[in-house]
Each structure stands twice: as C-alpha cells, then as structure tokens.
C-alpha cells in the first residue's frame, strides 16, 4: 500500500510505502525539516502539522508538544508513521530558508610563479617518429614532459592510451597533457588534441556540518570565478555530527549521509558551471576540507569509532580518489583530495585554516578559534603547533534553547537594551521567528549589563517588569512580543537557556585557557587570535569578551578571517606546496584530549559565571 504526502508551503508531493515516517517522506521529497536529535524523538524540533488525513501523535510527542499543539494536529515528523494520504504544513520554526552562509570572497588569488597547482595543463608539440626515433607514442609524450618539467617518470590512466595514436597523428603531433600531482609522483590524467590550456578548472569545497560552500577556480589564472553555498542536506539526519553518527551507525546506515553530501556538491557544481559557462569535463580537480566526521561521510568511511572512547577515526590522511568514483560529476578522470585531519574532533577544516592564516609560517605565536557545535582551537608558530576541541553543544547554532534557531531569515541577530527598552534586528528584516547564536550572546550581555540577571546567570524572581515572567517555574524574559513575531508566539529567553549558553561559552573559554596554560603562555603572549567560521564573522567581539566567551585581550589582536577552511582548500588546489604544508601541519600538530585533561574541568567550572569566577582575567569588563 502506498500513500501520497504533500508538504506545504513547498507544495511538494511524494509517494511512500505504508508505515514510512513523515521525516522519511520529507527527505524523499527534498523538503527540509529541523532534526536536532537525528530522529531519536527527543528534541521536538521536527514538529509539523497534519492538516489533512489521519495521523496521531506518538507517545514521545506528549512530553515535547503542548496539549493545544496536539489538538491542532501537530506531530513529530521523525516518529509519526504514515497510514493515510496526508497534507502536512511545516511551521516557520521547523523550516529553513534564506540562511546567512559564509561563502568567502570571490576574488583573485595571489600566488608566486613557483607555485604549481595540483593539476596542470601542459601544451606539447612533439617531433613525429622516424626509423631512428620510433619509441612508443606514450613514451614520446612522456619524454617531452620530462623536458618541460624535469620529472623522471609518470603514472598514466589506461583511458589516456585509448585513441592516442589518432589524437597525435590527426593533429600534427600537437596535444595538451593534463598532469596531476599525487603525493610524491605525477600522473598523466588526460591527453587532448591541440592546445586546451585555457580550459583548466578546479573546485574548492568547505564541507561544513551546517553548510557546504564551493568555489569554482580558473587554475591557470589563479582566479575564483564564482562561489555557491547551500545547507548541508545531512541536516535531515541530525543537526550535529554526533546525531548524524548515531544515525549512520544505527538504523539509518552510512549511505544516506554519504549520498546527501555528494548531492550537495553536485548541485553546487551544477550552479557554478551554468552561471560561468564552464563544462564539467574541464573540471579536473577538487580539494575538500571538513571536520573529521564530514570527511568520513564524504568519502563513505565508517565514522562510528570517532564518538566512542578512545575516539579513533578510520583515517586522518586520505588517499587521492577519482571524483566520479564517489559520484561527483566532473571530468572523467578528475580527482579529489581531502585535507587531512589531526584527531577525531580536530579536522581538515582546522588544518586548512592554520595553513591559510600562516600560523605555521612565522616565529610569532598565533592562535585560531573556530566556534560552532565544537570549539576548536589551534595555537603555535613555525616550530610547534598544539590544538584541542571542546564540545560547546548546539547553543551557538540555536539548539538547546527554547527560541533558538540558525542564522536564517527572521532570526534575531542583534539585541540592545536601553533604559529597559529592547531594540533588536532580524536577518532579512523579517518578523522575528527566534534568536540565532550572535543574538543570544548579545542578549546575555545586555541582560547582565542591565542587572536583569546576575553573574551566575539567574533572574531575580522578584523582578517587576512587563517583559519578565515565570512559566512552569522557569523564569523568562520576552525579547519580541507575539504581535511582532511571525508565529504570533513571543520570542523569549529562559533561565534554562541562559544556563545552556553559559555552559557553551564556559567550554570554549576553558579550552582556550587550558591550551595556553598547557604550553606555558599567557594570553598577552599570543600576537593574534584569528576567529574563523560563519558564527565568528557575525560576533560582537566586545560582548563576546564581556560574557567570558573570548579572552580579554586588545581587540586589535582579534581578527576575523571568514571561511578559512574554504580559503585553505583553494590555496591547496592552486599550490602543491600549500597542500604538502597541510599534510605536514596535520602530522606535526599535537592534540590535547581535554576529556582526559583534568585542568580543563577545573577551568570549565570556573568559567560558569559572567564573565568568570576570576574577574582578574577580565579587567576591561565593567557592568
């Protein structure tokens, strides 16, 4: 028995088998539904409204949905089975649209003339064979390549030999060789008639947990032609890497996660080639950077041991692979390199970032901070590098808070309280739907600055203010009243939300402090702190310092560097030396496993105040 499920407002319909779950139907229809817990039915983020047909809320929904919602036909998409034709409305808070995606600058790329890209096109004019010089056709090609670049031998794809005699003889012995670098050897990847050196493209990809971003690069010119970004389609299987690993290693299996990211990449490449009139057959190389889990999903590797003590990945360095073997639609022999990782929770995105901002090139000590679900930190110089990762939880990406949401249309991103009056800004200037990470940080700062909460993050329950109230014995403060929101429900921040955010900020600061203490440095001995990633780019630095998220150092020492993962992938695509540097960084960086490092727990406990238990660490903070 099959049933038809129609999703509104997308107006997409799909046919599914009896007993399939609504979330599975949404995935099949390519309709996004929030899914923080990976389908375990414990987060309540996937609530949808059944507006036609029969579907009953499962038992797990009772504790996550209100009686009014259940009476209005709301159910959990991840738990509710389909036994009827259904029309389902996805409410605003469950949808995803018009998110801010950190794509980086689509600009020219500086490089030295000594830089050799991972894939090159070399035009050859060969001398025809004679009785005195009758070596094989491919050896004639290889000999001329040796004269051009000085390399002694080349691997070759069998496909390059097919039709080679005709290509040479029909085109007056003039051909273009596509030459690819694979670690310590070169490979003849393609042989084309005549001169095609002006058609050599590559793609740099940041495979993020939340978003996937791709840049189309003219390798010969060293120029970024365009950039496209999209939400990671894996979000349908879980909001963060842990929930996705649980899905992949449980009932769902690995293939859906792998297929989702490949689909992401193919969609982005399709947009790029259409917009810039480039043939996919001329895309000869891809370099991808992502955290360790995303790299495993991309390559179809089992990630299950990453989240289990002693936290061991399948691999931290990855072989060069033919892109089409993964399902990526580029040149038939085009390849993909994946930036190597350091540990289970310090991935290729951090390695690419360290390389791109030059930490390993200078004697001065510098640091890199990437704040997301994990807070990843690297510190070092051209002699040593150390790193760590702390689980910050989903709070900075809108998870774990009542009205939290990603940085999408309608999310409150800036808040200011002046004389008790709240002013806020939303993404896209749309009616408020919730609060994203940067807005939550602003909110906590403004609440403590105005004395509405104390240093421990608690409300005064005797507070007399029209925005303050207590619901189910949990104090809350209204940021946007219902008549200003899209849903008609007020956007609030609760004492429980503040507690979750303080745990997240405490974990990040404790990781930074533990790492600097481990190497025997104080904050003022670090020349520059680079802040990477989309969240960091929208961060209000003074407020982030004031709540104890970032160290209290001169603001000129803190630099936003945008999507450093994408920058590192692009630089690696355009430079053999840059890619080799990534390999060396991943091999030489020392990872400190904070879960086994006792000082971290002490620092974490101390950081669970605003801004910190030790106010001497934050001398500039006054409120």
SS element count, helices:
17
Strand content: 25-35%
Calculate the terminal CA-CA distance, rounded to whole Å: 64 Å
Strand order of the largest sheet: 12-11-10-13-15-14
Which residue ranges are poorly predicted, with pLDDT under 50 across at least 5 consecutive positions? 105-109
Kindly state the percentage of residues in helix: 25-40%
Q: Quote the average pLDDT.
A: 90
User: Which structural category do the helix and sheet elements fall into?
Assistant: alpha/beta
Number of domains: 4
Q: So what's the overall shape?
A: globular
Please explain how this structure is put together.
The chain is an alpha/beta fold. Helix 10 (348-356) crosses helix 16 (576-588), helix 12 (495-518) crosses helix 17 (598-606) and helix 15 (564-574) packs across helix 16 (576-588). It has four domains: 2-94, Ubiquitin-like (UB roll) (Roll), CATH 3.10.20; 119-193, Ubiquitin-like (UB roll), CATH 3.10.20; 201-348, 2-Layer Sandwich (Nucleotidyltransferase, domain 5), CATH 3.30.420; 358-623, no CATH class. The relative contact order is 0.10. The strands form six sheets. It has a six-stranded mixed sheet with strand order 12-11-10-13-15-14, with helices on both faces. A six-stranded mixed sheet has the order 26-25-16-17-18-27, with helices on both faces. A five-stranded mixed sheet has the order 2-1-5-3-4. It is built from 17 helices and 27 strands.
